[in-house]
């Protein structure tokens, strides 16, 4: 195994001449838990394998009490890495990391091409090699731009407090607001008037509030005699609803912070 260093914070490892990046680096660069990145890899393993052999390795890590465990991580090719990034929502930490990956892989390709230069006595071969390199670099830039635009579209549904209304959450999940309320009541996520009283109708159960899936907005009538509680869906809650009730829908995911 050799290491290909670049001017960015991303370090690529090479296996059989192919550049890969390990998931520990991705997690550290985005300041998220490695378990969150591996959860994505495991969830979309079959899709990732369509872009080439998916290599797993393990390393010894110490837990909070000093015991040594062996944790699995993945080594992703360029295409696998870019596919994984389409599943991750943009943030102040993920956007720079995505840019650094594009630069790192492009630098690796340039270094590889310098080591194995085409036959410049053949102008056709030389032009083809240059065009192939530029095409891959342009494809990476286009993919990053598309992902940024896609995530921005989802973020447009957020209110000023960073939450989704039930109506907007329903749109993103591909259903109607009334149908979403019905699904969540039947699924034990929201309370119903029949079981919990009219004042609690469509209010999330406390365990889902504690889990960070919802926040409840409370408002009072002008006379102060009536209180209404309206659920708002968090970004993490939107992904929870997708995974539990709408598995066919794909959303850019918000990963858990490393400090959580």
Tell me what the structure shows.
- The chain has 260 residues and is an alpha+beta fold.
- It folds into 2 domains: 2-62 and 71-155, no CATH class; 166-245, no CATH class.
- The protein has 11 helices and 7 strands.
- It has helices at 23-30, 34-43, 45-49, 78-85, 94-115, 123-155, 166-172, 177-186, 193-196, 206-210, 235-245; strands spanning 2-4, 12-15, 18-22, 55-62, 68-76, 214-220, 227-233.
- The strands form 2 sheets. The protein has a 5-stranded antiparallel sheet. A two-stranded antiparallel ribbon has the order 6-7.
- Cα distance, first to last residue? 34 Å
E-strand count? 7
Strand content: 15-25%
Number of domains: 2
Major β-sheet, in short?
Answer: 5 strands, antiparallel
Helix content: 40-55%
Residue-averaged pLDDT: 79
Task: Please give the structural blueprint.
Blueprint: E1 2-4, E2 12-15, E3 18-22, H1 23-30, H2 34-43, H3 45-49, E4 55-62, E5 68-76, H4 78-85, H5 94-115, H6 123-155, H7 166-172, H8 177-186, H9 193-196, H10 206-210, E6 214-220, E7 227-233, H11 235-245
Antiparallel strand pairs: 1-2, 2-3, 3-5, 4-5, 6-7
Short description:
This protein has helices at about 25-30, 35-45, 45-50, 80-85, 95-115, 125-155, 165-170, 175-185, 195, 205-210, 235-245; strands at about 1-5, 10-15, 20, 55-60, 70-75, 215-220, 225-235.
